[in-house]
Fold this sequence. Notes:
This protein is 80% helix and 0% strand. By secondary structure, the protein is an all-alpha fold.
Amino acid sequence: MIESLRIVGTQVLILFILISLGFFGGKKKYITQEGVKSINDIMLFFVTPCVIINAFQREYNPLLLKNLMLSILASLISHVVCYAAGFIFIRDRDEALKRLKIFAIAYSNCGFMALPLIDALIGSEGV
């Protein structure tokens, strides 16, 4: 338990340092809007697929396949519930803004922080 807290604390500290570097880099104009777009593109089109491919580089195991299918099912259920909650609770006259809010409910950016934490705590199998 203490070891897990130490790992999580270390990962959160690393993420805080990286966020701080980006924040101060933006304030000092070392990072421009074009630079941010380029960094996002690198993360989206290169780093994330590499992390996913790396996570699947393992021997076949029926239990892993079962867990993957359960994860996909849980993800689908989560998205359906979030969309339903959005349609029920979001009351906005502007239809475009309403759709944007519902999308934001269903698709959070928790992967940014969750992937390093999961990798540190339970390894690539969790990722």
